[in-house]
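Input sequence (224 aa), recorded before submission:
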Amino acid sequence: MKSTKMSDEVWYFEDVIDNADEILQSVKDWKKNTNKEYMQNGSMTTKNYLDLTDDAIFKCLDVWYKNHETIDPDDHKVAKETMIFKRGPGGGYGPHSDFAAIPDGTFDQVSATILTYLCDENGFEGGEIFFPDYDVTIKPAKGSVVMFGHKVLHGVNDVISGERAIASVFLIKNKTFYKQMEAVDPKNPTPDEQKFFLSIAPQYTAKDGNINKNKFIKDEDLND
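Predicted structure, token format:
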């Protein structure tokens, strides 16, 4: 895995996964997006996604936390669900920041967005992700990950031709995670609730907090 710091809040990780096709094939229930007829949505539990990818996004989080020392990994979790999107030609998205949906119909700001690219970058025209506040535009390679932080504006250019596919999972604060999981008291989940929740979305753990590198990270991955 090679990591590139595109800005303080935008990172690009290459060669993260090598089974993008398997991930797409594992989604059996594709649903047409009601607002964009050229897009289909699928999903899987984040535990299944981590199992399929050998905890790949945790390796990216190693680098992220190493470079965000004010963010405590113990205060955050990956969301319970990983969304899979595939689409053909059509309109993109204007600049926006990401929010996590809560079952009560409200939304909480995410701490970071983690996007894994599941398609050959030469298989579609357009579709680049861009970050207007940082003057950064990326057309990520298949098997790569783009990760960006809290309130970062981002958009996607129109897809002119071909097919684009990504997996998307949010890094969220514990209280948001427990609200998503519908804990009786999101501020104080019971031990039984926590055990069950972690079976759906395992908790990232770092060795020695944010000070030292943990078991996943390698020196060559820190090339900023």
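Checked by second reader. The longest strand covers residues 164-173.
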